[in-house]
Structure prediction request, 65 residues.
Amino acid sequence: MSVPVLRSAHVYPVKSLAARACDTVAVEPWGLDGDRRWMLVDKAARAVTQRQQPSLARIAAEPLP
Prediction:
């Protein structure tokens, strides 16, 4: 029987922006700590995603302490 191994963990502090690699990350009841807690919206308060704006993948967000 093989044992699963987690090789890397990534979080997206802002939905649809670039991922951030983590050495360690806490798992909370609602998901990974700091993952997708924020999102970009347009003037009509609709979510903006990489599907609509692929260049968002080049923008990185870093959480403040």
User: Anything to note?
Assistant: The chain has a mean pLDDT of 92. The radius of gyration is 14 Å. Residues 10 and 20 are 5 Å apart (CA to CA).
